[in-house]
Write a structure and sequence with these properties.
heterodimer, A: alpha+beta, 3-stranded antiparallel sheet, B: alpha+beta, 11-stranded mixed sheet, 6-stranded mixed β-barrel
Chain lengths: 113, 877
């Protein structure tokens, strides 16, 4: 099993948006998908997922619908709205910019100064 | 996401909150079931899998709270539960809630009511619509040799020039108040001469009948008039066919064109409005704009869209300079204001001083009210220690409890704020009408200033009164509180209670001293009358038809002849003002040998003035008829004793010269007694009497009588009406005018007295409450003392000893504040007040009276403490 680390603050929203960009899912399914797409390295505290989901729902980035899961259980399914897709693009661009900036900063050597 | 979208989402959540909570619950259960299914697939039993899934999920209640937070519902739920808590608190302690609401209503309502009255009188233009576009223009005229005078009305010729050329003003009108006779009415009636744009400036004035004045009325010089609703009712019995009927004003027929409703106009009690072009026709003076005695008009205007008062000021300065070019040697300074009394040139400092004094008084009341409520809330806080401890033990944080307690106070303050707004909005008409003793002829609708004041006062009051009790509620020993034990100071109260008691007493004393000082002012004036024959001299108050300057000599001779012929009249005199008439008394700037420039009050008088008023000659001689109309470079003058002392403290004033600025000299030929009473301020007695110039201008006429004043008044009024067509006389004794002036102070004193009484009552209730609580807490101690042999007097002494220091400190501090306040008032308003404000009786009388009542308020709870049961107290220990 890969090493698991705590999430950086503010990254859960981006992960949820990414997970849902791959298809509609219920809460527990989103957790499993995040675990799956991060190669098992990101594990979200189960209950902590929901406040983030409700926040994104309130911002109009998610659409919700009650349905039946593969386990034949009633579950609330989340999917991305067009605004959600747009927000994902924006958040991703910001993240990539930050990663590049951080990498540049961390790769700096005394000679470069 | 926009704020509107957020608010809409929040409103939706609130509306569907039950469904949302159910949804969250179901979703969490679904999550746990899915996880349990996974764990079962991995080999756990169903029970073990469900248990493990629950543990992995974490605190369901915690995440529910977080979910509520995420949807903004936590705020709503807390606010709702805080309101429920507040409502329960109010229901459990209704008496305390009522006392708090009544106290805050009185404190805030009276303050806001007085503020609203000040707002109506001083802070805004008296217009019904769009005060932001209103502008009032003042002109100060000077010459090459004299500086600009006091900013006041503008010359008619200037108005006509401004009207046709101003671009920053949409419309500009001029007006002048007049007093005339109106057939069917006794005495004089106030009216207004106006330019025909007047009703455009004060629009909208929708006439009850007919129309208002129009531009053509002035252009065609029509003799028309618009009358007030009051005049329509009084003189024409509200006849519906009033339009076209004739009303005789100053004996001249004017055609009524309309009836105006009550509206906010510039003149109090104005009962008719007639074009300025009727001035000559009504025998009120010249109506030729180029005449030296042409009408002067106060200018009111409306700004054109996109222009400010600064634009208007700049434009007027240019136009005034052009007009000065026509009138050689004249220099005009113009001022443009918002029309409020506050911003009238020269008024700002005086108005702000009065406002500051009023606010000090209101601050005292607000302080007492707030201190009273804080005392009560502190008492409540002590009884709530166990409840607060329980809530803390169950996990409520201090911040959460503080918000709960604050909501309770805010709810009570909000109720008080609503009640106070009713009190405040109804106060101005009553207060202004009562103070001026005249019916109000303009609306006094509260403005947004009042509601801003009310909102901020209520909010500040609730925050101030709640902070200390909240801290007291939450500052507790949890274990001791849960066991029902209480930590008290040795005297059953904290230091804050002492401070509050002192504040209440101090504020009440300061107000009581002010009330007693003002209330006794008229009695003090009556007890020490002025040194003039105020009851035997009538000021005739004649409003004659106007004459050209230089032609008044005959008028004075005629008036003297007619008045002297009236039975009971002993002597007739003329002067520019009566003694003690600060309003009409002029000033001169003089330089005495060896002194700098001094401004002194000065009156021009006829030779009989001194004997008529009974002003005694002390040294030298009085003015003689031969001194009248002095054109020499050195003219004779008489000074009052006080003026002589001021100008030449150690020299003989007789023969001394006073150089008058800008030209001329006065030689002192006599010294006369001071006119004001012995208790008046020294500056009131300063006076320079100069000879009059009867032909130059109209002087006030005074008649000394030897019989009944009412009989003489009627006889003189009739004689003037018979001998001077168009003239009106309203004689009254000098004493009547003085009484009217002192009556105003008496009435202000009553208002302050009412406020002081409210403050004192609140303070007494507060003291009683604090002492009662202290006595209740010390019942056990008193019981033990009694068991050890203490007598009733010892119990009284014990409670008095612990409560007396804050009371007496409050009394001392309050009296000190009052003395300081009175000293400042007497320094600032020395020439306005008839006698000094500082009243030694008030300084010791008011605190003493309050001290007696406070001792009674302390003794009542102490009496109860003497009934403490010794056996029960000992058993408890």
């Amino acid at each position: 099993m890969a090493e698991q680390r705590d999430l950086l603050p503010g990254t859960l929203d981006l992960l949820i948006l990414k997970a849902l960009s791959l298809g509609a899912e219920h809460g527990y399914g989103i957790l499993l998908r995040i675990e799956q797409i991060s190669g098992g390295r990101i594990l979200v505290q189960q209950g902590a997922l929901y406040p983030a989901l409700y926040r994104l729902d309130d911002r109009g980035l998610l659409a919700t619908e009650w349905g039946t899961s593969d386990n034949n259980r009633r579950a609330k399914f989340y999917s991305l709205t067009p605004e959600g897709r747009k927000a994902l693009r924006g958040e991703r661009a910001s993240w990539e910019w930050l990663v590049a900036a951080m990498t540049t900063a961390l790769d700096a050597t005394p000679e470069a100064i | 996401m926009s704020l509107l979208t957020r608010l809409r989402a929040f409103a939706g959540h609130v509306r569907r909150r039950s469904a949302i909570y159910g949804d969250v619950d179901q979703e969490f259960q679904s999550h746990i079931a899915h996880r349990a299914d996974d764990l079962v697939r991995r080999g756990l039993s169903r029970n073990a899998a469900e248990r493990a899934a629950r543990i992995e999920f974490g605190s369901i209640e915690g995440y529910k709270d977080a979910a509520r937070d995420a949807r903004g519902l936590a705020f709503y739920d807390e606010a709702r539960s805080n309101i429920v808590f507040a409502w329960r608190g109010i229901r459990h302690r209704p008496l305390q809630a009522i006392i708090i609401v009544v106290t805050l209503t009185l404190g805030i309502g009276i303050s806001a009511g007085v503020f609203a009255t000040l707002d109506v009188i001083a802070f805004r233009a008296r217009v019904d619509a769009n005060p932001a576009t209103f502008a009032r223009v003042f002109s100060a005229y000077g010459t090459d040799s004299t500086p600009p005078g006091f900013p006041a009305a503008s010359r008619l010729s200037d108005y006509l020039a401004y009207r046709d050329r101003l671009r920053s003003l949409r419309v500009i009108a001029g007006w002048q108040a007049i007093a005339t006779t109106v057939d069917g009415r006794s005495g004089t009636t106030t009216g207004t001469l106006v330019t025909c744009e007047f009703f455009d400036v004060y629009a909208p004035v929708r006439p009850l009948v007919g129309r208002v004045l129009q531009a053509n009325d002035c252009a065609a010089r029509d003799n028309v008039v618009v009358i007030s609703e009051t005049l329509w009712r009084d003189v024409l019995s509200s006849a519906p066919d009033v339009v076209g009927r004739v009303l005789r004003i100053n004996g001249q027929p004017l055609r009524v064109v309309g009836v105006a409703p009550v509206f906010s106009g510039p003149v109090n009690d104005a009962n008719f409005w007639t074009p300025y072009t009727t001035r000559g026709y009504l025998r009120l003076g010249d109506d030729d704009p180029s005449s030296p005695t042409a009408l002067s008009v106060t200018l009111d205007a409306r700004l054109r869209d996109g222009y400010s008062r600064a634009d208007a000021r700049a434009e007027l300065a240019v136009l005034a300079a052009q007009q000065d070019g026509i009138h050689h040697g004249r220099h005009t300074v113009t001022f443009v204001t918002d029309g409020s009394m506050l911003n009238r040139p020269g008024n700002t400092a005086a108005v702000l001083t009065i406002v500051a004094f009023v606010f000090v008084a209101l601050a005292c009341l607000a302080l007492v009210a707030c201190a009273n409520v804080v005392s009560l809330l502190l008492a409540v806080a002590h009884t709530r220690h166990t409840e607060m401890a329980l809530r803390m033990a169950l996990g409520s944080g201090s911040a959460r409890l503080a918000r709960m307690l604050l909501t309770e106070t805010l709810a009570l303050a909000a109720i008080a704020g609503v009640l106070a707004s009713i009190v405040a909005s109804r106060t101005p008409p009553y207060l202004i009408g009562w103070l001026t003793q005249r019916p109000l002829t303009y609306p006094t609708h509260p403005s947004w200033h009042l509601f801003a004041f009310l909102f901020s006062t209520t909010l500040i009051a609730s925050l101030v009164v709640s902070s200390a009790p909240i801290r007291a509620s939450l500052r507790l020993d949890l274990v001791a509180a849960l066991r029902g034990l209480r930590k008290d100071s040795h005297d059953g109260r904290g230091r804050s209670s002492n401070a509050l008691m002192g504040v209440q007493i101090g504020g009440a004393v300061a107000l009581l001293v002010a009330a007693v000082s003002l209330g006794r002012m008229s009695a003090r004036i009556a007890a020490s009358p002025p040194h003039v024959e105020s009851r035997r001299v009538l000021a005739l108050n004649i409003v004659p038809t106007d004459r050209v300057g230089g032609a008044w000599g005959g008028y004075h001779e005629d008036v003297a002849r007619v008045a002297a012929a009236v039975p009971g009249v002993e002597m007739v005199a003329f002067g520019s003002a009566a003694p003690l008439d600060d309003e009409r008394t002029g000033t001169i700037v003089v330089t005495a040998t060896g002194t700098g420039k001094q401004t002194l009050p000065a009156i021009q008088v006829s030779s009989s003035y001194f004997d008529t008023f009974g002003i005694r000659l002390v040294r030298g001689r009085l003015l003689k008829t031969a001194d009248d109309s002095c054109v020499a470079s050195v003219c004779p003058a008489v000074v009052s004793l006080e003026a002589a002392r001021e100008l030449w403290p150690s020299d003989d004033p007789l023969g001394k010269l006073l150089r008058v600025v800008p030209a001329g000299e006065l030689e002192i030929v006599g010294v006369v007694s001071d006119a004001p009473s012995d208790i008046s301020a020294r500056v009131e007695a300063l006076m320079v009497y100069r000879p009059w110039t009867p032909a130059e201008r109209r002087y006030q006429t005074f008649a000394r009588i030897n019989g009944d004043a009412a009989t003489a008044t009627h006889a003189i009024a009739a004689a003037i009406a018979d001998n001077f067509p168009g003239a009106v006389a309203a004689p009254e004794t000098l004493q009547a005018a003085l009484d009217r002036f002192t009556d105003a102070f008496y009435r202000i004193g009553l208002v302050v007295g009412g406020v002081a009484l409210v403050a004192a009552t609140l303070a007494l209730v507060g003291v009683y409450g604090v002492v009662s609580l202290s006595a209740k807490r010390r019942m056990k101690e008193m019981g033990i003392r009694i068991a050890l042999g203490a007598r009733d007097i010892d119990v009284y002494k014990a409670l008095l000893r612990s409560n007396a220091p804050p009371v007496f400190i409050g009394l001392g501090v309050g009296a000190a504040i009052a003395v300081g306040f009175a000293t400042v008032v007497d320094r600032v308003a020395a020439t306005t007040l008839p006698i000094p404000f500082a009243d030694p009786f008030a300084f010791w009388g008011a605190p003493l009276a309050l001290a007696v009542v406070v001792v009674v308020a302390i003794a009542a709870p102490a009496r109860r403490a003497t009934g403490a049961a010794p056996v029960q107290s000992l058993r408890q220990d």
